[in-house]
């Protein structure tokens, strides 16, 4: 039998439905102890952080996700950063070394690929603040207008790759909310329309920025 010719509208329609479905799935993203810890540890070049550093980084992620929620359907754990770390350690995926500076939590090399899977489950929820952190870290000070221009240039690629929920005309409002939250956390300072790196919180900002470089 002669194979029927597919109508021209079929493929783009199916692609649009598939993309919309992926956006909806991502809107229901769920942060948890494991994917938050993996995100922080994989951001570190040595795949290790002191417990104090890991707690500080999880506090940063949790505050961003709670105060500027990714979507109405996304979920963030109610527990503290310290409680989440305790829970993650119980899963026996990480190593803990005792040191004079305190416990060092290590992501073993053999676990790195699996842990990347966990991190990728929430990458879309943190990519915009991570991108902002990367841009501010690179420039050390940048105007709000220039920051928007950098993000506008990269956003179509990020939206297509990570199935992000925002349209271009929504970005300015989200960026403003995230900038205010990052200022509240002391990651940056806002002066005369410019975002400045805060040296006192540079490690946390750099680890946040690493998420956009993956």
Explain this structure.
By secondary structure, this protein is mostly helical. It contains nine helices and six strands. The chain has helices at residues 10-27, 33-43, 51-67, 81-89, 112-120, 123-139, 144-162, 171-184, 202-213, and strands at residues 48-50, 95-97, 104-106, 141-143, 188-191, 194-197.
Q: What is the SS-derived class?
A: mainly alpha
Helix content: 55-70%
Strand content: 5-15%
Mean pLDDT over the residues: 95
Give me the Rg, rounded.
Answer: 19 Å
- Could you give a short account of the major beta sheet? 3 strands, antiparallel
Question: How many separate helices?
Answer: 9
Question: Strand arrangement, largest sheet?
Answer: 1-3-2
Please give the number of β-strands: 6
From the N-terminal CA to the C-terminal CA, the straight-line distance is 49 Å
Written as H for each helix and E for each strand, in order along the chain, the element string is HHEHHEEHHEHHEEH
* Coarse shape: globular
Q: Which residues form runs of ≥5 with pLDDT under 50? A: none
């Amino acid at each position: 039998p002669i194979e029927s010719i597919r109508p021209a509208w079929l493929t783009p329609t199916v692609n649009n439905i598939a993309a919309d479905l992926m956006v909806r799935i991502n809107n229901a993203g769920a942060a948890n102890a494991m994917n938050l810890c993996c995100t922080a540890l994989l951001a570190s070049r040595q795949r290790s952080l002191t417990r104090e550093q890991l707690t500080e980084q999880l506090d940063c992620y949790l505050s961003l996700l709670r105060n500027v929620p990714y979507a109405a359907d996304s979920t963030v754990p109610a527990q503290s950063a310290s409680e989440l770390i305790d829970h993650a350690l119980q899963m026996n995926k990480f190593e803990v070394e005792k040191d004079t500076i305190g416990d060092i939590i290590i992501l073993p090399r053999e676990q790195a690929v699996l842990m990347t899977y966990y991190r990728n489950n929430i990458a879309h929820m943190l990519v915009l603040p991570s991108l902002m952190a990367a841009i501010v870290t690179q420039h050390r000070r940048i105007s709000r207008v220039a920051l928007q221009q950098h993000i506008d240039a990269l956003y179509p690629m990020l939206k297509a790759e990570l199935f992000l929920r925002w349209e271009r005309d929504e970005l300015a409002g989200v960026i403003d909310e995230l900038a205010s939250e990052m200022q509240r956390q002391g990651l940056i300072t806002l002066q005369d329309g410019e975002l400045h790196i805060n040296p006192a919180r540079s490690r946390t900002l750099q680890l946040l920025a690493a998420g956009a470089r993956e």
